[in-house]
Every structure is written in structure tokens, then in C-alpha cells.
Write a structure and sequence with these properties.
The chain is built from one helix and 22 strands. A hairpin with a 4-residue loop joins strand 2 and strand 3. The N terminus is likely disordered. The chain has a single domain, classed as Neuraminidase (6 Propeller).
Amino acid sequence: MRIILLLFLLMLFGCIKNSSSTTFPLKNIIPYKRLKNINYSKFNEPSGICHHISRKSLIVVGDEGDICEMDYNGKILQKKHLFNSDFEGVTHNPSTGLIYIAVEGEEKIIEINPAGLTVTREFILSRQLNGETLLKVGGQGIEAITFVPNSSHPHGGTFLVANQSLQLDSKDDISGIIEYEIPLNNKKVKKGFGKIIRVIQPYIIDLTGLYYEMSTKLIYVISESTNTLSCLSRAGILLNVQALPGQRQEGITFDSKGYLYIAQDSGQIIKYKPINQVN
């Protein structure tokens, strides 16, 4: 099934030679069929979602500091209000199973133990690279997060974090994806610091969702304002852009069978099925 998903994703986001040829509104819509809104429990303002591989479940966070674990059809398995903060993205480290939440405004990542949804550590994110401000205090703030596993990295991988901006020419509050190194393997650190490694600027506004696909090493990015899903190479090269059918879309993940889930902060979590998939 993993191979089928890999082939489907490659077909879905076939490389385009010149991204500047993209025009809006897009006519090519993602080849998925909407199944249903699985948020029948009405989890408040879902803004981020990730597929937890080992737990075979979905982790969802909300704008008011809530987190929950649900099955693939939306049944709540556990739920907790952590604190009054703006949770905007969620991911997990498949090697450890630990969950990581992007907190907007405070510009930090908090680490969560999935057993009981308890906070274990937090990491403040740098706002500067080489003396230049990339994340302005009081700006739009970070909006999405995804983990990039790397077995050769001393901390098991890095994080990609999207900074939300509605302007492409802003130098101190960029619309871009920032790669951070976090000292995950230093267990003595309970309050750590995230260092910027590099910046990817895909020249797309209003980045609100991120997903890193391990097999293909591709990055998927949601833009809320344009209702699009873009595909980037690991190096940050824009490969393709396709239209998303929903509104206020802020989180994205795929499960192991290829089903797509989009979190909308309007209150819905939409489950999609690949058009050509039999079951």
C-alpha cells in the first residue's frame, strides 16, 4: 500500500518545468473525492492535523489551545485543553512517537507525550538568521509545522515551520518555510532553543499547512488565501500547484492508505479518497 501511495503522489504532483506559468484560478483540482466531514464531535477550530504512524490515529490541534486524538472516522480517543494559546500546526517524530505543536504568537514548539497528551518540553524558535529578522514580533506568526526525519542527523531530523505573511516583499516577516534544528536528543533540556538552518521562499502568500512525505522527500504546502496545494522538492523548488476545493484550510495529512485529511478552522475536518482507489 505504501508503494501505491508513493506512485499516486508522484502522479498527483508531476513536475512542471516552469512554475512561473501557473495562473489563477487553477482549473486542475486535486484528484480526490470528498467523503465526509469527520469532525462530528465538533472539536473547536481545528487548525492542524497529522497522521500518527505508530498509533494509527489522527492528532488534531485547535486555535484555543486544545489537542485531541481521533480515529480515521473522527471518533475522539482522547482530548485535552493544554493552555490558552494559539495552536496552529502539529506533527510527530515517527521514531519516538512524540508530538510537536507550533504555537503562534509565542513562536515556539511544545513537545507532547501522546500517552495522556502531557507537555514534556518546549523550544523557543529563533526569529533571526545571520542578524536579519525573518519572523517579526507582532507579525502574522508561525502557522504550520512538519517533521523531516533524518537518521544521520544528531537529533533525528529537523522541523519545517511555515511563517504566515500576506506580502511577498516583506523582509522582516517573510512568507516562507523555515527549517529549524531542535536539540531533541538533549534530554536534560526542558526549555530549549530552535536554531534556523535555512529558509525556503516558494513565493506563495498565506502559508497555513505543511506535510513532508518521507518516501518521496516532497513538501506539500497549503495556501489559505488562494485555496491551493503546492508541491516542493526538498531543496525548495516549486514543482506543482493544484486547487483545493474547501475554504479556510489550515492543516493537511495523509494516512497510510492514501486518504487525505484537511483541517479547516471553520470547524470541519474533511476526509478525501483518491479518485482511482478501489477501497
